[in-house]
Each structure stands twice: as C-alpha cells, then as structure tokens.
What does this fold into?
Amino acid sequence: NITDSDPDGRLTVTDKDVKLQEIALAKNEGKELTKEEKQRLRKEKKQHKKNKKDDKGPPEKEKEKEKASVPAPSKPATQSPAHKAPAPVHASESAAAAEKPAKSKAELRAERRARQDSERTSKQGKKEGGQQSASSKPKATPNELQPVVKRLPEHVQVDDPAALKKLAKKLERQQVPLRSDYGYKVSLFSHLHQYSRKSPPTLQISIPATVIHPSIVRLGLQYSQGIIAGSNARSVALLHTFKQVIQDYSTPPNEELSRDLVNKLSPYISFLSQCRPLSASMGNAIKYIKKEISNIPSQCKEEEAKGKLQACIDSYINEKIILASEAISKYAIEKISDGDVILVYGCSSLVNHILCKAFEKQRKFRVIVVDSRPRLEGREALRRLVKKGIRCTYVLISALSYILPEVSKVFLGAHALLANGYVMSRVGTSQIALVAKAYNVPVLVCCETYKFCERVQTDSFVSNELDDPDDLIVTRNGKSHLENWQTVKSLGLLNLVYDVTPPDFVDLVITDLGMIPCTSVPVVLRVKNVDQ
Amino acid sequence: MKLVEYFRAQIREDPDVASAVAAIRSLLEFLKRDQSETILGLRENQTKAIQRLEETDSSVAVSSGGELFLRFISLTSLEHPDLSQCKNVMIERGELFLKKISLSRGKVGKLCHTFIKDGAKILTHSSSRVVLKVLENAAADNKRFTVYVTESQPDSAGKLMAQKLHNLNIPVTVVLDAAVGYIMEKVDLVIVGAEGVVESGGVINKIGTYQMAVCSKAHNKPFYVVAESFKFVRLYPLNQQDVPDRFKYKADILKTVKDLNQEHPMIDYTPPSLITLLFTDLGVLTPSAVSDELIKLYL
It folds into this structure.
C-alpha cells in the first residue's frame, strides 16, 4: 500500500503529480468519483497549494488537516516540506480502480523511491533557501522517469500493427476510406506506406460524398495520380482548395466557427494524407490556417470571418511563395556571372524561375539539366528553359561525373530544410551534391522559408515516401521487363521519392531572408518563431 | 575633400588605429559639420562620404565599418520634430559606437591570449594590429613563445610586424611566403588577422592566408582568426573569383589601371571549412556561428 512508510521512518512523499495521476487513472478507468471523494480531492489540492507557500510549515499541521487515519511519522524540520500522502483517498481510489491495482501500486512505489532519492540529493546540495526549488525538483524527476513516449507520426509506423489499428479506427471515425498497401516492400522500408496508383482512395468514396468536400476529393485524386506534383504546386493547390471549402462552409447552430471549422478540416487532411503523404510545406500551411481559424474572435459574423480567412490565405500564398521567389531570384542573380555553366536537377519551380529571371537580365550562361528515372521530371524543366531561349544540355544522372568538370555552379531546389541543416529533396539530389563536392563545384540550394521544418533527420530511411513500384517497369521494343515482378518471391522494387543531403555538401542556401550557410537554418527558425 | 584629408590625417597621427576606426571617426566629424536640413539629406551625405572613403582606402573593413556605423546611428527613433535634436541623437550614438569599437581590440586580445600556451610556436601572416595586441597580452602574462612571420610580399608588411614584435622582446623569425609548408610542421598554431569576415564564416585577408590555411589543415594545426566585430560584412563569396574586384586591388590601382588581369590581387578568401575558431569582441565563435551574429547585427 502506498501508505507504507520507509524503514528510516521518513514520510512517503506524494507529489501533486502523483495525486493528479491517480485522479487521471481513476477517470480513465471510467469510475465515477463519489461526491464525497471529489470533495476530499478538492480539499487536498488546496492543501497542497498551501503547503507550497509556507516552506517551513510544520508537518504536524498538514497531517491533521489531511486524513488523520494515516499513521505518518513526522519528518524532521530540516527536510524539505513534507507533502502528505492523501492516503485514504488514494486507498479508496485504488480500491475503486480495481482493474489495475498492481500497476498503480508498483508505479507509485517506484516513483516514491525515486523522489526520495532525489530529495536526499537535493537536501545535501541545497540550503534552506533552496527549499522551494527542492520541492519543485521532485516534481521534475517523476516526470522524467515515467516513460515519456514521443508520438511517432503514423506514416512511419506501418509495420506496427497497433499503430495501424489506431489509424484504422481514426479513419473509420472520420469516415475516410483506408487505403491498403500494395506489393512486396523492401525490408529496410517496410515501415513506410507503399500505394499503387491504380487504386486511388477515391474509388471507395460514395457519390455524393457526405463527409468530404468534393474539391478535396478532386485534389486527393490529383495528388495520388501525380497530376499535381512539386511542393510549391501542392501547397498552392491545397490552399486554394481550402479557400473553396471555407467558402462553402456554414456554421451549424450552437457551434463556433473557430472551433467547428478546424474539426471539419481534420477528416479532409486525413483523406489527403491517405492519397499522398503530406509534404513539409503543406504541413506548415495547414498549421498556419488552423492557427488563423482558431484566432477568429467569437463575435465575428460568419461572412466577415470567411472573408478574413480567405484574405489570410491569399496573403500567405502571395508573401510566402510568390514574393519569396522574387526575393530569392534577386539574391540568386547576384551569384550568376557571365560565362557560367549551371547544373540543375529535376524540375524545381523556384530554380526554373531564377534561371528565367537571370536570362531576362541578360546574363550569359548555359544550363545542364540532369534527369533520372522513373519520374523524368527534367524533361519538363528542359521544356520550360528551352522555351525561354536558354541554351541547355540534357543528361541522365549516370553521366554526372562525366559532365561535372565543365560545370561552374550547381543550383538545387529543396522539398524541405530540416532543423539540423540537412536538405530534403528529390532522390538523387544528395548524389549530385556529393559528386559536386568531390569536384569542388559550389552547390547552392534555393528554398523559401515556409519550407523550413522543425524535424531532424540524418538519413533517408527514417521518414521517406515510397512511390508506386510499378513505375519501374520499363517497356522497350515491345517487351516489358519486370512486368511480372510480383510472381518472383525474392524480388522487391523500390521507388524512393526523397533523400537527405548533409550540410557539408551544401555551400550556400538562398532564402527570402537572404543568403545563409546551411548550418544557420535553426537561427532562421528561431527568428521566425520570435516574429510569430 | 576635407573628409579625405581628415581621414588621412587620422591615420598619420595614430598609426596604431585600425583604418576602419579612423574612417568612422572621420564620418562622425563629417556628420557634426554637416549642414543638411533633412534627415534624409544627412543619410545621403553619409552614404556618399562612405563611398569617398572607400575610394581612398579600398579595404573591406572600411566598407563594413561604414555601413555598420550608418545602421547603428539611424536605427533609433528619430521622431523628434527638431532636426538639431535628431542630429544630436545621431551624434551621441555615433560617439557610443566609436567608443565601443575602440575597446574591441582590447577585448579580442583578452579572449585570445589564453589560447597561447607556454612554449608555443606561433605562425602569423603579414602585419595585423589585432594579432600584435594578442601577442602583447600573452607576453604580458609571462608566457614564453616564439613567432614566425611570413614576409608577405609585395609590400613586405611582415618585416614591419617582426620589428614591432622585436620591440616587445618576443623572439621572432621572418620566413619567406613560399616557406609556409616547410615551417608548418614546427609550429603549434596559426593566428591571423582579418580584413573582413563574410557571412559564411570565411575571412578575407592579405593574399597568402588561404595557402596558410590549407597547409595548416593538411598538418592538422589549429587555424585561428582574430577580428573585431565591425569587420563583419554582408558578402558571401563562393570561391576566390566571387570576391568583388573593388576589394581585391588597392584603390589607386582600381582608378588608374584598365586591365585588371595584369595586376596582383592584394587579398584572398579563406573558406570557413579551414578555420578552427574566430576570436571577436562578441566572443569566441565557430565559423557557423558567424552567420548567427551577422543576422543579429544586420537585421
């Protein structure tokens, strides 16, 4: 029982935390605390608050006020303030919480011991003046000792059946169809989803869709089929669709717009992430919208609120994407000199914009476009640049070390910039950065600040996206090799979408705030948080 | 042109002062004598003055010091209706700035001399007043060390440095610029000054510094840079070519010579990957922290 006192006769110290935890446990187990018990709890809470105020309050006084039935020996006055064990309440609670008595007792015992240890050390270290902090110290340690499990995002826990069940339940609650994985997954990446393009989740939605707005359904289909690709395009499309959703939204009676609209958006976001995992830029945009919605004052009329939100979204797109790319072009053009040979990889809307602007400003340069299967996005970039009139060369990534001696600069786009300075971008980017470093060619990454995210990653395995493996099937001369890859048991096809480049390979990051070294990304994040 | 004369007079009177400090003193004096009627006029005149000073002395420090001075004095509320009051506020801030930066060399010296251990052999490049201050402090702390200085052609500034060190009773040897690789195995650490510290954390300094940095990296010797904070400049060179021409050559050469390809550049750029630590009056920084400090200074 938790009221057991220690062999050295010192009082078991219960913290407010433990008490609250007990209350939480009891609540969670669905036991109704009787009125009496509730009153007792309230009294004890007040008591604890009082105890904190008078440091040197004699333990006896507290004891009397607390449940007297606890045979608690008094603590010597030099100890830090004794927190009472509200034993009878706990006893009744633990009796009430009959389902898991062993767990609570064992947990409490462990916490008690840890707290006593910490109190002993804090006593030795601190003097009387530090008593207040000593009382707060034991508070901190139980928290550390309780296993604080940081919640991993669902999309990297696909091989964990418990997580899958949770996801299925959540989607069922939101009435969003669950998409099933397709094909054999390479074991290193079995913790990620792998979907097939032939079975979009939109097939499972009834017409007319009751829960999900039709423009969201359309957007989801466009994502899953790859019609809208590229992080800027996806974010802008998402924001425009949200504008439509807000336009069509009407507050149900007895609800507040600021709270209800956020709840309405959650199933949409779940549906979109089923169609294609959300990108970092989309995540930041969604956070911004949710913040704006919840900041709408309650007195605001619906039309006014809707207009405000639409204006917010418009200004976000304008500032963070369009004006940002103008600012980045301005800085980047300083770095492009006449006679440069610039290497670009894949199709980044920002890098294409920079090159077009530089060409308009009469800079003399030529471009080498590097491309890779299966997406072959470089062809789109090539088309855009040639249309402008820029001299271009086109190679596949396997020819990289062959053409790099000619190159004077490498311009890369980014999907996201992580908090430890790593650059997350299309698969193949880190390869280009690595080979460029070996040839001493400067690598410049262009990225808007809204793509900076607080995540930290050092490798490309932990969090990535697996695309449809059927994309790797190639048809040449009428023969499709790998067509029957599923029949071969030992064969797995891997179609990765992103990879992560370390900051030592990147010489310069051009953002709308200016040119910064790759290691200064956390500084920018800090400055941004201060602004908000 | 009185401004330029004042500037040159400042340098002549006090050869120990950094050229940027002299420049800022001249700018302050110019501000005091300025007769403009509007704040915008004052600022425009200051900008023009900075440009004129840059033409006289084309070092990076003058340019960065001037810009920081201008930002510091105008980054305050100038909402007073009376122009003379505004001007007084600006002059006051200018004096404050000048006082701060005059003390910066002392601060750097205090920070750095603890890194010099007893019996150390130090290699330095060309003549830097900050490095001199650091070595002075270390000598005053009763540390025994020897110094190797490179000759630093084409102006043989290294010999000047050797003379100054000799006057401080520090054992010094002058070595050829070409002997840096030869001497590197004997030395324990390398300390150089800087004309400018750029956003990437790299430094711009007298030509030959880059070589020294590459050598010290190859021999795994620590490469320290000492610089005051007013030398932080908003440049980001990617390689040697990317440094603007107006810094590379002396001011009079820029004005007279047509084909710069025939001239020898006076400075080079050392990338941050070769620098171990930077000692500034803002503290001891790693190259990646320089960008942090720059953001604080300039934004």
User: Anything to note?
Assistant: Strands of chain B lie at 120-124, 145-150, 172-175, 189-192, 196-197, 203-206, 223-226, 267-270, 277-280, 283-285. The CA atoms of residues 26 and 262 of chain B lie 34 Å apart.
